[in-house]
Amino acid sequence: MEQWVLLRKGADFEAIARKYHISPRLASLIRNREITDDAKMERYLNGTIADLYDGMLLKDMDRAVEILAEKIKEQKKIRVIGDYDIDGVNATYILLEGLEGLGADVDSDIPDRMRDGYGLNMTLVERAYEAGVDTIITCDNGIAAPEEIAYGKRLGMTIVVTDHHEVPYEEEEGKKIYKLPPADAIVDPKQQGCTYPFDGLCGAAVAYKLIEALYEVSGKDACDVDYLIQNVAIATVGDVMDLVDENRIFVKEGLAMLSRTSNLGLRALIECTGLDRGNISAYHIGFILGPCLNASGRLDTAKRALALFRAETKKEADMLAGELKALNDSRKNMTVEATEQAIRQVEEKYMEDRVLVVYLPDCHESLAGIVAGRVRERFYRPVFVLTDAENSVKGSGRSIEAYAMYEELNRCKNLLTKYGGHRMAAGLSLNKENVDMFRKMLNENCTLGEKELTEKVVIDMEMPFSCVTEPFVEELSLLEPFGKGNTKPIFAARDIELSDVRVIGKNKNVIKALARDKNGTRMDALYFGDVEKFLHVYEKKGGKMMLTYYPGINEYLGQKKPQITITHYQ
Q1: What is the average pLDDT score of the chain?
Q2: Burial of 66 (C-beta count, 10 Å sphere; 0-12/13-18/19+)
């Protein structure tokens, strides 16, 4: 059973409404997002590129910029080493574009998920050395690669790390001792002593900050690289970062840039997936474009997604976009099958566990994270999905708010050969014989109680259907972009009578009904979810329910009509 919680945050909503020319109701919704003072309100509603923080505030940024400016001047060979996910690919593209724009001798390498695993490894370092590379820049990785970086240094290379992941640490007498790799410069907002005002950046955003700072130091106009903000936006949404503070600005500005992008690859992918280029939202990145870009790193090579961004002709862009979409379609089918197996395994064996460890030896290892996310949605518990890799077992984890995944992995590190990540997601490798012990240790260490393992539905306000008007729905767009950390507001209404309930849609997976609230206002209602469960509850309760919903406008044959989408029900 979900726990429904009504937010009750106080403020002078009439005064806020007058000051910012919004409705008191919208002022209340913004206050619910912890926007508490004028500066935050102004930034939330009207933040632009000009409001982004100075990248030079990042610890070691001055050192990184100094090193790279010198290497560019001396025409030393630079190699960008990224990662195979959507953040790593966009970060690699940003660094390549920016450095080429400054005349650098630069190329890139991205690890193969199956052969190399995550991040920097000895093979990549050796490959760079054999190619005569003088300087390696990592992006979206590197913070957890001390041995590999030490090896590169012994070979005489300069190494600059740009990353956003947690810094590895060891606990000694209850204190965390952080272990930084021996790089020449480390730019990571999560490292100790970094005074940057916001530590929630993705890897691509850190890469962008470096390029922006390099342009300023080199005497070039940093506005020349503004177009790369569209790639920061894609990575921020795709890597599921919180859409707050600076990330909100990156995504808002990036979405506007995407609508008029001149990047041939992005245009081809938008066209190939049937989207309207003038109307791209964070949802489209998260659920349509992003999965296509990620599919190359999962089932093929992420170099294909990078090639899409760098395509020089429409023909090349169209071909690559088509390949990525086909890969993603194949990935979807494989994911459905693996998710069904995982759910069956949990229901048959592990329903008593508070931390779910699902071992699917034959699942494609690249799908483990997606499957873990689906299983977490189903059971609302932290989930690790493990699969057989070449010489060991590999896995990905997806967490719930109350469970710090990286910290919990750190407590099991003696069983692991490699691990990394952050609070909400992690990756790991271990020997097959340790799988059962890993499951046991995670659950023995787990302190989550019933309350933390109950999904919380946070309601912004109770609101009668009469308030669902076209002007109010339009005003809600001021809260966009929606995503993690800035979710769509949730409205609630009690004693709702449903009638004319029917199942619609090509796949028979949508409920359509006529909803009537206690004041007598009627409105069309849609529900996307477990149709059978909804119908069972509806029939059992005789058609009366308490609902949470999001308001919208249905436009059909030129006629506009308010409607609601039901999100939860009791």
Answers
A1: 93
A2: middle
What φ, ψ does residue 59 adopt, rounded to 5°?
Answer: -55, 135
The pLDDT tens digits of the residues spanning 447-465 come to 999 999 999 999 999 999 9
Cα–Cα distance for residue pair 294/292, rounded to 1 Å: 5
CA pair distance 273, 289, nearest whole angstrom: 8
Q: Is the dihedral of CA 539, 545, 548, 554 positive or negative?
A: positive
Token output for 467: 């308030």
**Cα(434)–Cα(419) distance, rounded to whole angstroms?**
14
Distance CA 238, CA 244 (A): 15
Query: What's the pLDDT tens digit per position in 209-264?
Result: 999 999 999 999 999 999 999 999 999 999 989 999 999 999 999 999 999 999 99
- DSSP helix, strand, coil percent of the chain (3-state; round to 5): 45, 20, 35
The Cα 420–Cα 166 span in angstroms is 8
Tell me the backbone φ, ψ of residue 417, rounded to 5 degrees: -95, -25
Instruction: Tell me how far apart the alpha carbons of residues 372 and 395 are, in angstroms, rounded to a whole number.
Output: 9
Furthest C-alpha separation in the chain = 78
Phi-psi region of 483 (alpha: psi -120 to 50; beta: other; left: phi over 0): left
Residue 460 backbone dihedrals phi, psi, to 5 degrees: -75, -45
Nearest alpha-carbon partner for 102 in 80, 71, 145: 71
How would you write 428-480 as a 3-class SS string? EEECHHHHHHHHHHHHHHCCCCCCCCCCEEEECEECCHHHCCHHHHHHHHHHC
Which residues, including other chains, have CB under 8 Å from residue 131's CB and lie 6 or more apart? Answer: 77, 79, 107
Rounded CA-CA distance 365/303 in Å is: 18
CA atoms of 543 and 548, how far apart (whole Å): 15
Cis peptide before 481 (omega within 30 of 0): yes
Reading the block at residue 346, the tokens are 């949990």
Residue-wise burial string across 68-104, b where 16 or more C-beta atoms lie within 10 A, e elsewhere: bbebbeeebbbbbbbbbbbbbbbbbbbbbbbbebbeb
Among left, alpha and beta (phi > 0; psi -120 to 50; other), residue 201 is beta
In whole angstroms, what is the distance from residue 214 CA to residue 209 CA? 9
